Amino acid sequence: MQFIGEWAANEGRNLIYFQPQVLETFSSYVQVKSNDLEAGGVLLGYVRGSHLEIVEATAPTKFDKRFRYLFERMRDLHDAIAHKRWAQSDGTIRYLGEWHTHPENNPSPSGIDLREWHALATKRKDGRPVLGVIVGRHGLYVENTPRLGEPVRYEPIL
Ligand SMILES: [Zn+2]
User: Fold this and answer.
1) Average pLDDT of the chain?
2) How big is the chain by its Cα radius of gyration, in Å?
3) Fewest Cβ atoms closer than 10 Å to its Cβ: which of 82, 109, 114, 130?
């Protein structure tokens, strides 16, 4: 599965670029078989004005709870990686959001997903939105959830 790496919202005023290694991580956890479990992690990258460049998607750790229709992160390990990258990059590579898989061809967020993204956005110390990515079998779902106001849905640039 080759996912699309360039996404846009608000007539192109907001762009998101997923670097190839991020798409490879997504591809390696697609729930192809009927017993494949959900996977996920955090998204790290650069803020470039009103655009985002995603450079890393952390892989599930052995401490995460993985089920067929549910993925629960043990936040500490993912947060530790995020903090390490932030320190190594002099604060330029930062936490941008969350990703997880769904056993659907074209995924859409569950009520739990929407509530979690909003709760995370409310908790962010830097006040930035939380990017939520769902990895399906045929495509991604990409949405940026601010602390206040409506979430912004991104569409692939074909
Ligand atoms: Zn979900």
Assistant:
1) 93
2) 14
3) 114
Tell me if residue 149 falls in helix, strand or coil. coil
Residue 18, pLDDT score: 98
Distance (Å) from CA 148 to ligand 1 centroid: 21
Q: How long is the chain? A: 158
Question: What are the start-end ranges of the E strands in 20-75?
Answer: 40-48, 51-57, 65-66, 71-72
Catalytic site positions: 38
Judged against a pLDDT cut of 90, whether residue 30 lies above it is answered with: yes
Backbone angles phi, psi at 62, to 5 degrees: -70, -10
pLDDT tens digits for range 99-140: 999 999 999 999 999 999 999 999 988 899 999 999 999 999
Cα of 48 from ligand 1 centre, angstroms? 27
Distance CA 142, CA 152 (A): 9
| Cα–Cα separations (whole angstroms), residue 87 to 4, 34, 48, 74, 125 | 29, 40, 18, 21, 16
Instruction: Compute CA 61 distance to the chain's CA centroid, rounded to the nearest angstrom.
Output: 16
The CATH-assigned architecture of domain 6-156 is: 3-Layer(aba) Sandwich (3.40)
